[in-house]
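step 3/5: co-fold with IPE
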Amino acid sequence: MMKTLKEQVVDNQLPRHIAIIMDGNGRWAKKKGNIRIFGHKNGVTAVRDTTEAAAEIGIEYLTLYAFSTENWNRPRTEVDALMSLLIQTINKEVPTLQKNNIKLVTIGDLSSLPVDVQKKLQEAKDQTKNNSRTTLTLALSYSSRWEIGKAVKDIAHKVKEGTLDVDSISEETISQYLETSNIPDPELLIRTSGEQRLSNFLLYQLAYSELYFTPKFWPDFRKNDFYEAILAYQGRERRFGKISEQLTKNI
Ligand code: IPE
Ligand code: IPE
Ligand code: MG
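step 4/5: write tokens
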């Protein structure tokens, strides 16, 4: 019998953290002769499928780019529709998170979100805070340059107060001041829809991540697509600046 994609995934070589730029909702809808928001609504199925797949195979951290700082510049009607969709989705999906032992957290400038969205998110985070199988991080009103700017300011304040010594600032210190302070860097980044760019996502954290691009639009992304990306990752050699022989022969 042929092994399924899920069975082909090597358990002891799983990435701990996978980040995804969920892209292509608008084009998916347009291709079907529909309005963009129809694509966003159908993207929710892909979110559920991917989150379940991650929990099933034991991925510790899954981070989804759901709304960027730059996305505020979209037409007002689309932004409003995305915000209502967010509320509806949280209402509907919290039971899925509970069932799969998934903890919801967020990164981004939450204070810029409508108050009802902030409240819903807080409720969902409180309800799931003791779950431990997978941490699902939603990036909302997030951009990497915003995050880095904020970290620099926070560090500067500490130095000025005298609680942080300038000479002690290391790469690790910087990581600790980012929104992702409690989360390891992603080993794998997936972007759907064929675009090959980072769009201001996790610039510091992705320094050594493997990048995987698929032409599929996000609403069509399913468990098997997720496993395929992990298999591609498992076929890569991560050298971190060393040479190939050093990895296998311990020289
Ligand atoms: C991704 O799909 C979802 C968000 C950015 C909110 P898009 O809405 O960017 O869809 P395309 O890229 O225009 O097709
Ligand atoms: C990136 O997608 C942001 C999210 C997926 C939330 P965009 O569709 O906004 O990115 P660009 O504009 O194509 O770079
Ligand atoms: Mg897009």
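step 5/5: annotate
Residues 21-23, 65-68, 70-71, 195, 197, 199 surround IPE (ligand 2) (CB under 6 Å).
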